[in-house]
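To illustrate the input format used throughout this study, we show a single complete record. The first block contains the structure-token representation of the backbone; no residue identities are included at this stage. The design step must infer an amino acid for every position from geometry alone.
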């Protein structure tokens, strides 16, 4: 096996490095804060349309939670063993070589992360648009081939604000994430309590069905994919592993606690919504949770949910920006991207250029409008492909590097990672068949990184990557 590269946080006389400033509470907040976005408020409609049964939807939430938990356990061992900035990039690089590692990084920092942040930003603006005070968001400010409205400007301002916050120090960004994640969890708990305590309906709704559902295996798989989309984001913690204190202890704790808490909140939230609404109402409502709270609290309920969704997406954006910038940073640190992207602020010990690079790509996608949604759809297939590849590296490290220092060893090896890989394979098949065009283009995007890698590899061999 190739010799591992030095940890990103190691300081040298030539340049500053990242610092381990995030504790277990910050790490847990990153996991929970990124996962809980708008999904839990929106996907119950899609899941009910697919299955038609509350029991089957609940089963999809449970299975989705277990699969995410299996993936998180695997990543917990990998992160504890290799606590470096870049997460999956490091595991794939050291197991399968720098080319495969770069293709992962290329996919994430050109499309995956910027499109994900831009999508959340666009959703946040749409949610704010529900309030009369934000009516200006739809007003055109700059006309032309690419018109700019108030919503674009607010989204750009939020992206720049959060990127600046992350530049001022990972500890500041972590404290911000922790505070607002606690508020977010409190909001979800409040929704659950309101629905059960004040909502009408009861157990009869739990037994109701939606006659127009797809049903069968296809329906369950569609519901499971929707649930996994809502659970998505648990892998982000490992991207910032180089800045977590005592990573051998804190990464596994944050992973297990975070996924367990989110799964419990998701299952209880759906059960609470189903307690208030029959299956048919959930299948026909654009925002089932908003409708349930509105029935429990009256007209004020819709405003409460809209405010909650906006807060949830705002916190998720901060976590995405915090973790995403470490991917181009890690590739550049190895010499496979512009050297300037690997620079760390001597004052704040953060990858400022990588944050700026990520912000620029994200803003470009925001300004393009609906075009970035197509790009994000291209990335979905690629993301799950790399989840599978990154998880498979655990077998390589257990066999080839059996004597490596492992602060944490997952329980259930090799069954746990094998089940996750099997599930990821099935999901890749279904997503490829059901979305053939985007899956093919997603593969094209990955392969487009090959000539880029060899360009930087040649320059590195000749004496360093360009600044």
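Output of the design step:
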């Amino acid at each position: 096996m190739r010799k591992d590269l030095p940890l990103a946080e190691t300081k040298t006389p030539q340049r500053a490095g990242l610092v381990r400033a995030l504790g277990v509470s910050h790490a847990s907040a990153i996991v929970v804060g990124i996962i809980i976005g708008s999904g839990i408020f929106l996907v119950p409609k899609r899941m009910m349309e697919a299955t038609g049964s509350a029991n089957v939807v609940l089963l999809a939430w449970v299975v989705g939670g277990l699969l995410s938990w299996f993936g998180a356990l695997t990543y917990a061992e990998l992160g504890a063993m290799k606590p470096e900035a870049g997460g999956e990039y490091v595991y794939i690089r050291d197991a399968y070589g720098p080319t495969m590692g770069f293709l992962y990084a290329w996919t994430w920092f050109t499309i995956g992360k910027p499109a994900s942040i831009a999508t959340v930003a666009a959703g946040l603006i749409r949610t704010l648009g529900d309030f009369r005070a934000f009516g200006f968001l739809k007003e055109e400010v700059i006309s032309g081939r690419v018109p700019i409205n108030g919503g674009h400007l607010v989204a750009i301002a939020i992206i720049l604000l959060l990127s600046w916050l992350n530049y001022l120090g990972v500890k500041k960004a972590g404290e911000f994430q922790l505070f607002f994640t606690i508020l977010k969890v409190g909001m979800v708990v409040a929704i659950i309590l309101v629905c059960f305590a004040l909502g009408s309906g009861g157990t009869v709704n739990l037994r109701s069905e939606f006659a127009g559902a797809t049903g069968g295996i296809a329906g369950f798989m569609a519901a499971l994919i929707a649930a996994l989309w809502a659970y998505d984001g648990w892998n982000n913690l490992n991207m910032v592993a180089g800045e977590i204190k005592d990573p051998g202890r804190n990464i596994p704790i944050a992973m297990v606690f975070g996924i367990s808490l989110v799964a419990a909140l998701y299952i209880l939230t759906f059960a609470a919504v189903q307690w208030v609404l029959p299956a048919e109402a959930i299948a026909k409502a654009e925002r089932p949770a908003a409708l349930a709270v509105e029935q429990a609290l009256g007209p004020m309920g819709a405003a409460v949910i809209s405010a909650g969704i906006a807060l949830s997406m705002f916190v998720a954006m901060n976590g995405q920006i915090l973790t995403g910038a470490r991917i181009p940073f890690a590739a550049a640190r190895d010499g496979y991207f512009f050297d300037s992207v690997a620079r760390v602020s001597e004052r704040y010990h953060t990858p400022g250029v990588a944050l700026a690079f990520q912000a620029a790509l994200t803003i470009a996608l925001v300004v393009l409008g609906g075009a970035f949604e197509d790009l994000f759809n291209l990335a979905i297939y690629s993301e799950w492909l790399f989840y599978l590849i990154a998880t498979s590296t655990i077998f390589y490290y257990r066999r080839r590097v059996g004597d490596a220092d492992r602060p944490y060893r997952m329980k259930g090896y090799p069954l746990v990672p094998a089940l996750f890989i099997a599930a990821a394979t099935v999901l890749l098949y279904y997503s490829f068949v059901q979305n053939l065009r985007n899956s093919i283009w997603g593969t094209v995007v990955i392969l487009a990184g090959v000539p880029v890698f060899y360009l930087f590899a040649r320059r590195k061999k000749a004496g360093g990557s360009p600044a």
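Structural context for interpreting the output: The two ends are 29 Å apart (CA to CA). The beta strands are 140-142, 148-149.
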